[in-house]
Amino acid sequence: MIADGFRIAYVVDGTGFLTPRNGGEEKRRSLATSLAGSGDLTIFIVPASDGDTAAPPALEVALDDGRTATVKMLRPLRGDGRTASIGQRVVDIARRNQFERLRETGIPTELLSGYASASASVKADVVVVDAPHLYGTAQCWSVPSIVVTQNHESRTYASRAFARSTSPHQRFALLFAAAGFLFDERSIARHASQLWVVSEDDANQYRRRFPSLNVRVVLNVVSRHTKPAGAPTLNPPTIAFLGSLNYGPNREAAILFGELAARLQNSGTDCRAIVIGGDANEALKAALAATPVEQLGFVDNLDHVLSSVAAVVAPLGRGGGTKLKVLDSLARALPVVTTPDGVIGLDGLEAGCHAHVAPLGPQFDESVRRVLQDPVAARTMGVVGREWVLTNFGSHRLDELVASHLAEVVT
């Protein structure tokens, strides 16, 4: 049981969660809201750059469901065109003599003093760090620490390094990043009180590699205030892929979506195909330009765009964690066509009842055609999928899990 006056410090990378523009930022905001429901929350923002100053040094911010938090800015981790990730530079941080150990890694003294003064100004009973590469900041508090991760970073980067499409230069960079994340994970395994992941599949991977690590699941969730998209009226019907296009698995899926659109067109299936998401590189833009898809980029009013969509199509081939694009689409009562990788972690989802699930290839293409040819059945599936996801992945579920895991740490 968590006592009254329980104090939580939450360290995040960047200010995006204040005005979320993608799934990762929505996830941070959801977690912040649940943390605020369990205690007095102070959020420490580590800016992505000197220019990332969307929040002043101290600010009271409104989260969801009427909850609030105090926000403080810390000094940026990156500068001079270099990555100065604390997590990748700290190999072995002991709680004893922590600042001496940090200085030995070459992290600038002014950064340390910034973290030290920030932690001294806010007393905390637990510190929650939003990503493994930020774990060094947790050492500024002599309290239990929790690390949150979206997927198994070291393995994800290593697998990308050996993909057939990876150039030698990219392979070196990816392996270097994988080694840095492995150092992070080993440090976390030795010192963190808990690691929070978003699916049992991810949890079991960590447990096999680090048997002593206390791994707990905190679900990706959707807001219970999400409104259904409504029946589309456009002719021809529109299918959509959405996601942040600076993420490798999403880039690959966007290309597969473009190829799918070309096959549908060639087979005489009349539909419009759109890709929604910012941060596409020039190579991806060129690849999609050679297909029938329309590239919308980042859209300010996603609700308006999705109100005209007949189905969300997510041809995902890899990627860790539960897929926010799938959860969000289900919550909007949109018919979803995805792969088995797209529903990893969605325990209880029934293929053919809550969403169409098929492997990439002819079966996947046929599932998309079925949705387009029978819009009434597709919308019925969308309604059933919405009811299921709000029950099993609504924000109330994250509140319950966060409260339970925090109580375990502090009692």
Number of strands: 14
Helix content: 40-55%
Strand content: 15-25%
Helix-and-strand structural type? alpha/beta
- Output the radius of gyration: 22 Å
Uncertain ranges = 76-109
Give the biggest sheet.
8 strands, mixed
DSSP helical segment count: 14
How would you describe the shape?
A: globular
Could you tell me how far the N terminus lies from the C terminus, measured between alpha carbons in angstroms?
8 Å
Order of helices and strands: EHEEEHHHEEHHEHEEHEHEHEHEEHHH
- Average of per-residue pLDDT values: 82
Strand order of the largest sheet: 3-4-2-1-5-6-7-8
Report what the structure shows.
41% of the residues lie in helices and 15% in strands. It contains 14 helices and 14 strands. The strands form 2 sheets. An 8-stranded mixed sheet has the order 3-4-2-1-5-6-7-8, sandwiched between helices. The longest helix is centred in the middle third of the chain and has 24 residues, at 168-191. The N and C termini lie close together (8 Å). Mean pLDDT is 82; it is low at 76-109.
